[in-house]
Write a sequence for this structure.
């Protein structure tokens, strides 16, 4: 049986274990964050241990027991860790090819880069400007002048809707930018850029899943009525939205497949917005959560298993 290392133990891990096991793939969790990982033993290879719990057996290795077995015997990894620094150590220890390696995760995380690449490929996206901090207020004002209020302001590399705001005027925009400047003053902040983007009012929000170049299912994300009445507008599931399975039409499917092909990412969530006759790709996610099987096409797990096997074979020889 093929052994697959998965660095998330959230919903995706629990949902895929049994379906993939039925297809000859054993899924095990490898903890990549909120722990201590030995990066080097100074040449003592027998000391390649981790500090913390051995996630496979449950054995405690805090006293320095050899935990090399945690990373041994895997054939393939499923999505490079979200924390790139820790991921580099885990990647070295595992020594396996990834379904969505580091490059795929970094590519998708760069919202401006995604929008630019898709625009270059003729794929419709919202009008977007990247602002690379620090800049004078006049630069922000000029960039906003090319758009119409309200305007979306979003950090370039954040996920789950974190830090995304809508502003209705220049003073509000500059106020949000003031807060971003405070964050960007911190030297350890890696990405000091943010986006100004047109706000698509009352847009339907979809997530299309693409596996190995083919659309395999989609959901529409909606807010409960009370949230909408309270002025909420973000459709992130992690912020209370509900994802309901839908049968996306041919145009939406084609758009999602073209986006994945343009970015060269095998396993991709493609976020689509539809309003006033426009259908655009808003963002992409190279670490998408796997939803309930009922929200996907019947061949979803067959196709996912085939991609995992193909990725594992890419390391042969």
């Amino acid at each position: 049986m093929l052994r697959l290392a998965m660095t998330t133990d959230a919903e995706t891990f629990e949902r895929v274990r049994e379906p993939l096991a039925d297809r000859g793939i054993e899924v095990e969790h490898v903890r990549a964050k909120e722990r201590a990982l030995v990066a080097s033993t100074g040449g003592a290879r027998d000391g390649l241990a981790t500090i913390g719990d051995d996630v496979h057996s449950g054995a405690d290795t805090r006293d320095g027991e050899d935990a090399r077995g945690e990373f041994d015997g895997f054939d393939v990894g499923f999505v490079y860790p979200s924390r790139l620094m820790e991921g580099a150590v885990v990647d070295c220890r595992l020594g396996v090819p990834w379904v969505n390696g580091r490059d795929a995760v970094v590519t998708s995380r760069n919202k401006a880069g995604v929008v630019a690449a898709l625009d270059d490929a003729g794929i419709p996206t919202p009008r977007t400007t990247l602002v690379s901090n620090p800049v004078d207020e006049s630069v922000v004002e000029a960039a906003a002048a090319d758009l119409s209020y309200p305007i979306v302001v979003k950090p370039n590399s954040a996920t789950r809707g974190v830090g995304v705001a809508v502003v209705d005027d220049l003073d509000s925009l500059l106020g949000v930018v003031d807060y971003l400047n405070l964050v960007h003053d911190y030297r350890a902040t890696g990405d000091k850029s943010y986006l100004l983007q047109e706000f698509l009012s009352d847009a339907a929000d979809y997530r299309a899943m693409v596996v190995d170049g083919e659309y395999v299912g989609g959901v529409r994300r909606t807010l409960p009525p009370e949230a909408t009445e309270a002025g909420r507008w973000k459709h992130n599931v992690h912020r209370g939205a509900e994802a309901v399975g839908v049968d996306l039409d041919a145009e939406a499917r084609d758009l999602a497949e073209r986006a994945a092909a343009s970015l060269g990412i095998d396993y991709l969530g493609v976020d689509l917005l539809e309003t006033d006759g426009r259908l655009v790709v808003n963002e992409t996610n190279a670490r998408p959560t796997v939803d309930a099987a009922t929200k996907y096409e019947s061949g979803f797990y067959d196709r996912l298993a085939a991609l995992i096997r193909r990725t594992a074979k890419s390391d042969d020889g």
